[in-house]
């Protein structure tokens, strides 16, 4: 069924987030960019936020927060950015507030 497929895809997104490497973060970024299902995009954003490559994770979250057409997805990226405490996240929020 469609719902079962969604659960399988959610699990796959979770496991991508557990793996190291730039390829996995790129794959998660592609899901956020191209996936139809908002739930899966949000799950991918979370997995990006948990990625071991913190540098790349923050860059990717900032890109999503700035450019994703879905406001729910942008909001979730901003939420996880706020949890990083990363200086680039702070700079990003300063820019947002200056607009």
The biggest sheet, with number of strands, parallel, antiparallel or mixed sense and barrel status, is: none
Distance between the ends: 45 Å
Shape: globular
- Point out poorly predicted stretches: none
Radius of gyration: 13 Å
Q: Can you tell me about this structure?
A:
The chain is mainly α and about 100 residues long. Helix content is about 85%, strand content about 0%. The chain has six helices and no strands. It has helices at about 1-20, 20-35, 40-50, 55-65, 70-85, 85-99. Helix 2 runs antiparallel to helix 3 and helix 3 packs parallel to helix 5 (about 70-85). The longest helix has 17 residues, at about 1-20. The chain is globular, with a radius of gyration of 13 Å. The model has no long low-confidence stretch (mean pLDDT about 90).
Key words describing this protein structure:
single chain, 99 residues, mainly alpha, 6 helices, 83% helix, globular
Strand-helix topology:
Elements: H1 2-18, H2 22-34, H3 38-49, H4 54-67, H5 71-84, H6 87-98
Helix pairs in contact: 1-3, 2-3, 2-4, 3-5, 4-5
Brief description of this entry?
Helix content is 83%, strand content 0%.
């Amino acid at each position: 069924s469609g719902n079962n497929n969604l659960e399988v895809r959610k699990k796959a997104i979770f496991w991508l987030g557990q793996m190291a490497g730039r390829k996995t973060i790129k794959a998660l970024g592609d899901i956020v960019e191209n996936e139809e299902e908002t739930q899966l995009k949000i799950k991918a954003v979370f997995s990006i936020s948990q990625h071991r490559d913190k540098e790349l994770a923050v860059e990717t979250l900032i890109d999503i927060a700035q450019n994703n057409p879905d406001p729910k997805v942008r909001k979730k990226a901003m939420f996880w950015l706020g949890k990083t405490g990363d200086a680039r996240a702070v700079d990003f929020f300063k820019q947002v507030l200056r607009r």
